[in-house]
Prior knowledge:
121 residues, mainly alpha, flat
Amino acid sequence: MSGSELPVPPAAVAEHTAGNVPIPGLLIATPSFAAQDWGAVTPGGWAGLLYSGLLAIGLGYAIWVKGVQRLGGSRTAVYSNLTPIIATLTGVIFLGEHITALQIVGAACVLGGIVLTRVRG
């Protein structure tokens, strides 16, 4: 189905999401923002916020959108299953966490599922 055949144009969906999701979120978070001791946030905390917002979220979504444009939504969605594997490996590399046997089994299942969808898809 191309963009011209969709019942609602993709731009309208994006505008709705961008306009309507943050407003309730900010209203719900207002009491917490007011109670926060902003002076207690360290420079490292602010750096972590910037990293999370700009790189982890911003760059991640930019790559995701490119993937959807090139591969289509269904083929791209399969790769979202890699998130827990990448998160686990990040914990191992940066936090010194240890991988368990169950995590290895889970990763094998995820990778096997991705291979099956690529071979049959």
